[in-house]
Design goal:
Elements: H1 13-26, H2 34-51, E1 52-53, E2 60-66, H3 69-78, E3 87-92, E4 102-105, H4 112-119, E5 125-128, E6 140-145, E7 148-153, H5 155-160, E8 164-165, H6 167-172, E9 174-175
Parallel strand pairs: 2-3, 2-4, 4-5, 5-6, 7-9
Antiparallel strand pairs: 1-8, 6-7
């Protein structure tokens, strides 16, 4: 009779751990200051590298941030962490938004509409904290509710960008059309 070893359960831990991290970001204290909000946004942007699939697998992922040096600085500290074996480059401002896999534009940036038109249909995950961003055609919007930074996702914008978002991320987001 053959001996059978139990199947290791390590395969499920990473997604559960990542979901725990994302849920932890949602359960922050209710009165977030600007530094805490920048930290939350930077952590979301970093974790998008693990929960979004781009059509062409690249060795380097580029996160471009326009309008928030605080988010850039925090992301720079996170850049050395594992991103599914890929290098992570953080850009502050951009000349060509097509180099970005993730493009985050702060709500105060006047060029937001022009940048969104420029990357329309390109495999770029567009993210902003502008009011109604996802409802107006952006892929992922940050919004505040009861003192917490939360996500809204526009599946049609994600599809047009030829991207796929993991179901675990979709579970914690508000889906908009």
């Amino acid at each position: 009779m053959a001996d059978f070893a139990p199947i290791p359960r390590r395969r499920c831990r990473a997604p559960v751990r990542l979901l725990g991290l994302l849920l932890g970001l949602l359960l922050q204290p209710g009165h977030a200051d600007d530094a805490t909000e920048a930290n939350t946004k930077a952590n979301y942007l970093y974790n998008f590298t693990k929960f979004v699939e781009w059509p062409a697998a690249a060795d380097t992922l580029h996160i471009c941030v326009v309008g928030s040096e605080a988010v850039v600085n925090i992301l720079s500290d996170l850049a050395s962490r594992d991103t599914k074996g890929r290098l992570l480059q953080i850009w502050s401002g951009i000349d060509d938004p097509h180099v970005c896999q993730i493009l985050y534009v702060e709500r105060t940036v006047a060029e937001l509409p022009a940048l969104m038109r420029e990357v329309s249909g390109a495999p770029v995950l567009t993210v902003s904290d502008a009011d109604g961003f996802a409802e107006q055609g952006g892929a992922v919007g940050f919004y505040r509710e009861q003192g917490q930074v939360k996500l809204s996702v526009n599946p049609e914008a994600v599809r047009k960008a030829q991207l796929k978002i993991n179901a675990l991320l979709m579970e914690i987001a508000r889906i908009v059309r």
